[in-house]
Write a structure and sequence with these properties.
Layout lengths: L3 H9 L2 H10 L6 E3 L7 H6 L1 H13 L2 H4 L4 E9 L3 E11 L2 H8 L2 H17 L4 H6 L11 H13 L18 H4 L1 H11 L12 H4 L8 E6 L12 E5 H5 L7 E5 L2 H5 L7 E5 L19 E5 L4 H13 L4 E2 L4 H6 L20 H12 L12 H11 L8 H5 L1
Length: 399
């Protein structure tokens, strides 16, 4: 025989459908549970006492005895040995009040009703959102009036280009951060054409707000800098970097900061440091790099080649410098054992780069950090070989 605990487990499965039925204006009750473990003939005699206790417990929490909850409906059953018995046959929740009382969600139901009215009266367009996200409306800690103020502001000003604390909304400065997931879900629904990227998880970037951007560091290596520009080493916000216009024809990207800082003077060249490692992704949306000769200098290890591969996924014409077999063998005494990389096929590497990458994957000492390469070697490679007239694209070399 079904127990009150099992009934509640089944009843709780109806909670979200009930909320949705209210939003859609559809009737939901009565709800019937007819699979209650009906009594078989042998149970009347073999386990009569246990069966009696189960039935008593079933009635103890029923509307039949408490006036609320599930109603036990019975049916007459005839058994050969014991004759006729009136036994539980089905359970029925007749009304919303019966159901809410039994599952213990009276407070949550009232919150849902009040919050739904507030939302629909303020922003009627959110009806379909509430249908799919109705459980949000049962949470008591949410200040829906303030949440809707934020929604109304973004509906009127979908790309504010302000910092969070600058938004002219009558809420405290941490409110959006504290309710980030909820407000993001609402804005995704209300202003889908003003979401920067579906993959962007940070609220401020997703909805065109200003934020403390990563800084991209630039060094101007030209021996004869422009007389009106006195700075050789600057850092600028990522958004400014993405819209740069530079006359330099060559770009040299270094993975390690100290190597970046000690690069020699080179004609018509700007050096870039984006923070090291996989922060190379910051260079993805910089279209001005497409017509520059790009060189990347990173560690000779498995991760270094993966970063190079990633850079080429944004800028296919990028070439590597000092990431070759000659450099590795020249300074192999400085090589150490480094972290392994799960990638096996980096199809944006040249033939020579891939051969070295595969060698490193089978070598015990598979890491030569670029800062271990002597400065005199670096200067010689860059000054003598970097900007020769025989420049060819990576795609040409790969063929």
């Amino acid at each position: 025989m079904i127990s009150p605990a099992e009934i509640k487990k089944q009843a709780l499965k109806w909670w979200k459908p009930l909320l949705q039925s209210h939003i859609q204006g559809e009737p939901f009750f009565p709800k019937i549970i007819d699979r209650i473990g009906k009594v078989k003939s042998g149970q009347i005699t073999e386990r009569f006492e246990i069966l009696q206790k189960e039935i008593e417990e079933l009635y103890r929490f029923s509307k039949n005895q408490t006036g609320k909850g599930y109603l036990v409906q019975t049916a007459g059953r005839n058994f050969r040995r014991t004759g006729s018995h009136d036994l539980p046959d089905t359970l029925v929740f007749e009304t919303i009040d019966d159901y809410i009382y039994f599952i213990g969600c009276t407070k949550e139901w009232r919150l849902f009703i009040d919050n739904y009215k507030t939302i629909i009266n303020t922003i009627p367009e959110l009806k379909d959102w509430t249908l799919n996200n109705c459980l949000w409306l049962t949470k008591g800690e949410i200040n829906w009036n303030d949440v809707l103020k934020v929604c109304q502001f973004f509906m009127e000003t979908p790309r504010p280009n302000l910092y969070l604390r600058q938004l002219p909304i009558e809420i405290h400065t941490k409110f959006i951060e504290e309710n980030n997931a909820l407000i993001q879900s609402l804005l995704d629904f209300l202003i889908p054409d003003h979401v920067r990227s579906a993959q962007q998880k940070r609220f401020v970037e997703r909805f065109f707000l200003r934020y403390d951007e990563p800084l991209i560091r630039l060094r101007f290596l030209d021996e004869n800098p422009h007389p009106d520009f006195k700075f050789r080493d600057i850092s600028i916000p990522l958004s400014d970097f993405e819209t740069l216009e530079l006359h330099a024809g060559n770009v040299l990207i270094a993975e390690n900061k100290m190597n970046f800082l000690t690069l020699p003077l080179l004609g018509s060249t700007v050096a870039i440091w984006s923070g090291g490692g996989f922060n190379i992704s910051y260079l993805k949306n910089a279209p001005w790099l497409s017509d520059k000769k790009i060189r990347y200098w990173g560690d000779i290890d498995e991760h270094g080649f993966q970063i190079l591969h990633q850079l080429r996924s944004y800028h296919p014409h990028a070439q590597s410098v000092m990431m070759d077999r000659t450099t590795f063998e020249t300074f192999q005494n400085y090589a150490v054992s480094g972290a392994r990389n799960q990638s096996h096929n980096l199809n944006l590497l040249t033939k020579e780069e891939n051969e070295l990458f595969q060698y490193l994957k089978t070598s015990e000492k598979n890491r030569l950090e670029q800062e271990k390469i002597p400065q005199v070697y670096v200067d010689g490679c860059l000054k003598m070989g970097l900007y020769n007239s025989g420049y060819s694209s990576v795609s040409e070399k790969r063929d």
